[in-house]
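Q: Entry one of two.
A:
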Amino acid sequence: MERTVERDKLRARLTKIEERIEAACKRAGRSREEVKIVAVTKYVDADAIGDLLSVGIDHIGENRAQDALPKMERYGAEGTWHFIGHLQTNKVKDVVGKFAYIHSLDRLSLAEAINKRAEALGIIVPCFVQINVSGEETKFGLRPNDVLAFFAETSNMKHIKVVGLMTMAPHAENPEETRAVFRELRQWRDRVGQLPYDNVDARELSMGMSGDFEVAIEEGATYIRLGSVLVKPEEHE
């Protein structure tokens, strides 16, 4: 009975979110099918993963491998799992081969570790390269001035496939203040798309969270990472 109530509440929240997504897509002249919701689930338990899957959310985003593994034991085969947190090099073995996507490739040493682990497993890992567009000291990501050199340095890594770019905008009371950050990441995506590297097919943009996802969609987001607005109202992502 308790789970039924929780799922009804979740379904109601999702309906409101869908209305906002569709409106943002309409303003931008985009199709709703271009935008995927990644549920940020670091604050919820495995039962909540089941709730999300039951209402049609199948992209699950986790920040820490050790927190994700118990949830994946129950539901790993039912969803598409995204690693969206900062990834320490010594944790690569816990992530590569378990998550479908890594959203936080942000340095050469991490790329080398992912590539080495993926080679040992005989797989190719889809990754988003994280760019610190805003320049905030508290955020991870490549500095814009280092982006092109990073792609050149990783261009021979055959077990990494760059499928897109990721960024986190500064917290702002007015979401409109984040627009320039999202627009710049889209511009970077267009530049990266011209690079002549076989392991780069950067069409996706992972950007936008609970407080600013509508602006991110208007600027081209294809994956939006929703935590508090979806799975844990009144909590922070």
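Q: Entry two of two.
A:
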Amino acid sequence: MSTDFQQARTALGVRLRELRLHRPDGRLTGEQLARQLGWHKSKVSKSKVSKLENGKQTATPQDLTAWSQATGHEDAIAGLHSQLAGLESLTRSWRRQLAGGHRPVQETLLAEHERTHAFRMWENSAVPGVLQTPDYARAMFTRYTELRSVRPDIEDAVRARLELQKWIYAGTKEYQGVLWEAALYSLICSPQTLALQLERLAGMVGLNTMRLGVVPLTASLKIPPGNGFWIYDDRLVVVEDWHAEIWLDTTDSVTAYEKVWDTLTESAVYGADAHRSILRARQTLGPC
């Protein structure tokens, strides 16, 4: 979890504790507040007051409203919601983002692409969305829909993802992509779908708007090939994790990921060597 996110969550917890301790009718203990909110009835929620106050759990908007009302500080509701919104601008829970399906998430990324000139992307387990074929993208969205139990708007999501690819051929933006070689072998789709995806990927090596590299499995690595991430110009980093998508826009965070990017790319191969790596993966699938 990001340091920026945890600091913001801790600050929210400090504010919640202040409201509990400075209740107009006298302070409440954590146990008294939990009983007043009905949280004492659940084993999971028994220590919820402590977790929220100590930055160990993220409050929901409903939690903040109930907390303010129970402590006699209804005037604090708007401020607490504002703090939560600032916190979630860093870490965007998949559960909340995908409440309306995948397409709204893709449209948010589309807007970010429109205002960006140069992209740097690292992927360690799958082909980046901006390079995916429709069938590969469809397989990815299907897997995540099943995993996260969200509304199945797969075809809308695929169309939105394909919209991102128009800039690769327009020549108005610059893309640098590096994949760990393991991503070329990940059968998260059918062998036939992966074969076509690899053939398309091989054809993109050498495009003047896309510098595509591969880090071989046998390459010497200075750091582990961690989570995939995108760097948008020098102002934003988006990191995808299982629980959330993390958006980082502080100078220190962007600088840290730029250093990670530079370190990973030192182990990458490009041009003919990258092309051979992709074709080697394709050959393992045999005739499809």
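A: Comment on entry two: The mean pLDDT is 88. The chain has two domains: 3-89, 94-283.
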